[in-house]
Specification:
The protein starts with 8 loop residues before the first helix and ends with a helix. Helix 11 runs antiparallel to helix 12, helix 12 runs parallel beside helix 14 and helix 14 packs antiparallel against helix 15. It is mainly alpha-helical. It has a domain of about 70 residues: lambda repressor-like DNA-binding domains (434 Repressor (Amino-terminal Domain)).
Amino acid sequence: MPHSTDDHTGARLRRARKARRLTQRELADRAPVSYSTITKLEQGAISASPAVIGALARALSVPVSDLTGQPYVDDLRRDQLDGLIQPIRDALDVYDLGDDPEITPRPAAELVTHADALCSLVRQTRLQQVAAELPGLIVEATTAAYRSSSSAAWATLASTYRTAYDVTNKLGFLDLCMVALDRMDWAAQRASSPQISSIRQYMRALVYLRSAQYRTGQRLLDSGLATLDQADAGLERDVVTGQLHLGAAVLRARAQDGDAADQHLAEAERLAGLTGPAEQVHWLAFGPTNVRVHRVATLAERNLYDDAVRATDSLVIPDSWPKSRTAHHHAEVAHAYLWCGQLDKAFGSLQAARKAGPQQTKYHPLVRETFAGLDAAKRRLPESFASFGSWLGV
C-alpha cells in the first residue's frame, strides 16, 4: 500500500520547505533534525515523532497541522463530522452577548448533569454524539450563567468550553480549540475557581508542547501550579496538582531534560499515592495508572523506545480506565514498537487503540504517522493491515 504522493507528512514537509526556498541541508541547519532524517521523511521511508514534527514546523514557521495534515477534512466529511464543527464555533461566539431572552435554561442541576455526561462521553471517545449535543448546551449554559451569576453556573459553562476544547482538539481543529480555552478561562474567572483556571493552563501547555514551544509550555504549567496555591487543600487540589506534574514530565522529556521529567513524575507518584484512583475528579484520569502511563510516554519522548516498551510490558490498564486515555496510550506504544522494529506488536497496538476509542484513533496524527512507518517498512503484515489503512483513510 504505497503512500499517496501528497498524503503523508514527508510530502507536506517537502512542499513547506520549498515554499520557504530552503534546501534539505539548510532546513537541517535551522532545526535540530539531521539531514538524513529530513531526506528519509520526504521520501516517505520513515515516520516522524511528534518532537521531530514540532521542531521542523518551528524551523519553517508553519503550524504543526500544516505538516500533519490536520484536520482530515475529507475523512471528517465522509464520517459526517465536519458539519458539527460550525455549530460549536457559533456557540463559542455568543459568550459576551449576555442573557438571551428567547432561551429558558433547564434547572442548574440538570445542566450540571448534562455537562458531566458530555465529559464522560468524551472519555468514551463518542465524539460524534458529543459534538452534536454540545452547541445547544453551551448556548443554554451561557444564558443560565448570565441569569444567575452564581459561581456554580459559571463553572458549568467553563465545563462546556472545556468539552469544546476536547472535541475540536481531537478532531484536529487546533485554532478553534484555542478559542475554546480562552472561553474556558473567561468563565473560570467568573466562577472564582483556581482549579479550573489551572486545568486551562495545563491544556494550553499541551498545545504548546505539540508546537515544540517547550519553554512557554513550562511557564504555563508553572502558572497553573502557582494558581493552585489559592485552592483549598484536599483531594481536588491534589488531583489537579498531580496532573500538572504529569504534563510537565512529558514536556520536559520532549525537551530531552530527563532529570526534570523524573522529578515531576516522582511528585505525581507521591500525590497519586495520596489520592488513589481519582479518574473522575475533573475528568483528568489521575491516579497510579496515569502515572505509570506517563512514565512510558516520557521514556518514548526521550527516544528510549526499548525502555518504553519494557515499561509497557509490566503495565496493566484496568478495564474501567477512560477509553480515551487507553486509546492514546496504545497509540504511543505503537510508535515505540515501530522504532524498536517490532512491527507486529506495533500494528497490534494500533488495533488496540482502535478497539478502545475508534473515533479518537481515526483522527490521531500519531496513529497515521505510525501506520505510514509500518507501510514504509515494506515487511509482510497481516491482511488486516490494508483494511486498517482503508478505515484510517490513508
